[in-house]
Amino acid sequence: MNPSAGDVIPGSATNGISVTLLSGAFYCFAPETGFQLSPGEKRNIEVDHSAWMIKEDQSPIGLYIVFYEKGGKERSRFPLNNFKVRAFTRPEQLNRFTYDQTPDPTPQWQYEQNEKLSLLSPYKDHPTVPA
């Protein structure tokens, strides 16, 4: 898995899965001892990140499964193209921290913010910040 919102915190995965940093922002999720998943069964796996992830475009990309032979030799890789990131709707998904009061910038919210803008007078000197 390759997330874009800070580092995944090792040991934070749930539902019988462990997570390990491989390199950079590349992680390995592996089943813990005794993990079983029956055909057709679904599991939600949650992980904690060192930074907030409050937008769907910060969700993991590049998921795939690696199959191994009994001796531990890699047999094949299978990309997961049929996963879906659900819309973030709960407060703990939209807030960056416990007391975050920044609203989710929906199109309606942005429209309301833009309505408050006004044109600057062309006859006034305006402060400039050098780049």
Overview features:
elongated, single chain, two-stranded antiparallel ribbon, mainly beta, 131 residues
Write the layout of secondary structure elements.
Blueprint: E1 17-23, E2 26-31, E3 64-68, E4 74-79, H1 91-94, H2 107-115
Antiparallel strand pairs: 1-2, 3-4
Could you explain how this protein is built, in words?
With 131 residues, the protein is mainly β. It has a domain at 17-87. The chain is 10% helix and 18% strand. The chain has helices at residues 91-94, 107-115; strands at 17-23, 26-31, 64-68, 74-79. Strand 1 and strand 2 (26-31) form a beta hairpin.
Q: Summarize model confidence as the mean pLDDT.
A: 82
Strand order of the largest sheet: 1-2
Q: Give me the number of helical elements.
A: 2
Instruction: State the share of residues found in helices, binned by percent.
Output: under 10%
As residue ranges, the low-confidence spans are none
From the structure provided, what is the oligomeric state, counting identical versus distinct chains? single chain
